[in-house]
Amino acid sequence: MRHCLNGCTGLIPDDGSHTGQVGCRGGPAHSPQACPTCQGEDRILFRVDSKQMNLLAVLEVRTDGNESWGGLLRFRKGRRWSLIFGLIIMTLVMASYMLSGARQELLIPSPFHYGGFPSNPGLTDTENPGDTKEHAHQPSVSNVSYVKDYPSIKLIIDSITARIEFTPRQLPDLEDLRKQEGHMFSVIPSKFLPNSKSPCWYEEFSGRNTTDPYLTNSYVLYSKRFRSTFDALRKAFWGHLSHADGKHFRLRCLPHFYIIGQPKCGTTDLYDRLRLHPEVKFSAIKEPHWWTRKRFGIVRLRDGLRDRYPVEDYLDLFDLAAHQIHQGLQASAAQERNKMNDIIVGEASASTMWDNNAWTFFYDNSTAGEPPFLTQDFIHAFQPNAKLIVMLRDPVERLYSDYLYFASSNKSADDFHEKVTEALQLFENCMLDYSLRACVYNNTLNNAMPPSRPCLPWAVVFPRPWFAVCWAPAPRLLCYLSSLPCPGTREVRLQVGLYAVYLLDWLTVFSKDQFLILRLEDHASNVKYTMHKVFRFLNLGPLSEKQEALLTKSPASNVRRPEDRSLGPMWPVTHKILQDFYGPFNARLARVLADEAFAWKTP
């Protein structure tokens, strides 16, 4: 089997079809025309036991039945030598890493290099924006170097800004949506119970009293954390069925409202406080990510596609709320048949507003690189009256918080800066050829950016029934080029902070009065005011003094970890670069919402 890597220097085997040589860009290389095996592309190939193999590819070993780890020693001779060679390479690269220090690049330089941009912090950054304070700092030598390079980065931002154009999107027909998600349309009805605030309906259950209704639920199968929750639902399931004419019926519900975004903007804190209200019931899992990921079989993009989670698995998450609504409906049936049930169901996946990464895998009828269907198209098809809550924060601070939260190693203000400059370059390259919407929804931009710091040599992945070793700490050469990103590395997600683009697309299908747009900065400074605003938006009843005190005085949820706080804020020059980048998008958002606070202008 031949493994080829594009865009790299290549070692070509001496087998008659090539002369033994090293081909490099800008140096001596074999001619593409004279190289039928590579077909004009650079490859990394070598021969073991008369077979071509990828020189530095990820090694994969088949495990059979109940073989022990000792089975690894029974490799064929060629594979054993490949393993030894890989260990030698790994050792050499590790040595270079330790000798050169964390601030030095490894053997392979970054393909996006703008020079160093380190600087000392000028702001004390915390998860709570209300605690932000200025303090003096002494400029370093590297800070001077970064400031000198700022004009070149500003040219990239100016190039992006000049190409910003907010164009209306073409909405898909309902029939097109049905063709894409036929099963979903066959399960969810077009009309719901009139005496329930939440969109609910009764569905026939054909199983027996010994049937496990959650036996095949993908959320249970793929996550041990949720099994105890489903165990409780399983025990109470039969007692919450409705029986008529010898048939059994279960109540199914969809959310009445969605907290749709954005990540690292306080959605967890809002969720934790809101679920304390007795009339609010959330899904069994805080963030199911079903509309954006699980219904496509995506858990993490780097893990590839799994089996798609059917809509029934998603509906199972609301069974606890459905049980309580069912009890209320049964109780009111004997008294006031038309009495409205006050319980409302909510869902809080922070990916709902922005994450449409899966479209490139499933939708092939795009227009100019833009997704033909977005998440909101499907939600609106079933729930045109859904209520939507959005929590936002200064996108500059959101990006740094996102980076600190998701990156697991080698985090620093310097590393963050380098990732920002690389991401800006990728975004500009996209904008040169495609529309703003195409680039914002282009997941390949994030996947294309290599990690700018080496990961530690522990990256072992065990997808069944194979295991593969990701040779680190040279992720650019060994993981990135082989399309297997090293664990512990994370790009910066510039696009998530382009709130105006996402909101304008949502406003093409939902009306403005169906949205409640909040700022984390306001929530942090006055929790009580924010929560009362949410209660009014959802038409919730008043709370007792004790409930009010518990809801408003609880400590903030999901705050920045102490080890991340110790890293300090981003460099001032990074902050300035991101302000320049997000500025035009914030200005448009402020105009759409008629509120200058959403421009996040700093004095």
UniProtKB/TrEMBL annotation:
Residue ranges crossing the lipid bilayer per the database entry: 81-99
InterPro entries assigned: CS_Sulfotransferase, P-loop_NTPase, Sulfotransferase_dom
GO BP annotations, alphabetical order: hexose biosynthetic process
GO molecular function, one term: 3'-phosphoadenosine 5'-phosphosulfate binding
KW Transmembrane helix (keyword) present: yes
Keyword Transmembrane helix: yes
Region called Disordered, residue ranges: 119-138
Sulfotransferase domain location: 255-551
Gene3D superfamilies on file: P-loop containing nucleotide triphosphate hydrolases
Superkingdom of the source species: Eukaryota
Keywords: Membrane, Transmembrane, Transmembrane helix
Protein name: Carbohydrate sulfotransferase 15
Gene transcribed to yield this protein: CHST15
